[in-house]
Amino acid sequence: MTGDMDGRRDADTAAVFKALADPTRRYLLDVLHERNGQTLGELGARLDMARQSVTQHLGVLEAANLISTVRRGREKLHYLNPVPLHDIQERWIDKFETPRLRAISAVKLRAEEHAMDAPSYVYVTYIASTPEQVWDALTDADLTAEYWGHSNVSDWAVGSPWEHRRTDGSATADVVGTVLETDRPRRLVLTFGPPDGAPTRVTFDIEPYGRIVRLTVTHDDIPTTEDYAAAAAGWPAVLANLKSLLETGAALPEVPWEMHAKADRG
Length: 266
Fold this sequence. Notes:
This protein is of the alpha+beta class. Helices cover about 50% and strands about 25% of the residues. The strands form 2 sheets. Strands 3-9-8-7-6-5-4 form a 7-stranded antiparallel beta sheet. A two-stranded antiparallel sheet has the order 1-2.
């Protein structure tokens, strides 16, 4: 199992380096860094090449998970996905340069706080599962307790409340909201926030992708730099645990968000 995971990680890393080897693809990433969430037409307007060629370059970037796409009506918007580059950073850089890079990252994030376009945070993962199983993993109280440390409780009808309850027997809800849209097993939209705070908006898009499932989480209306950092750390950790549960039958042996918190304290 370890060898398979190492081989998959190396294949993913190779796809990232291959995607970055082309100057046009690096330029597309730069353009998205300037303004996230652009259409094919907007990106193509910056390049002197055929629309089909731009589409092919974007396909390579998406296959490497360096960008993600979200449909908004009839348009498809393209967003940077920083996770693969972050993985490379953690693998080869962080253990040597973590304190200095963390300080630089904090300064950069503050500088860009007001430049982020909605949706504020987009994360994409691919899961060897079915759309129905992924939907249940997001909405079933017992399943969410297994990988999230909280139970998601609701009848999931539009307009109904939902709660993210602790599993310690207290039934305390740390996150609450309202179900805005439900289309099992394809799409779930919620307000998402603390009981005494302003709500944000979270959308789960579940799409068949060949024999696997593509799950896109879009977190809108994030109010502060600190909240954005929490989302950027939290969603990859939660979804890695969900992916492990569905693909192996068990959550990860260590809780990812607790490891991240320990690293921050270190």
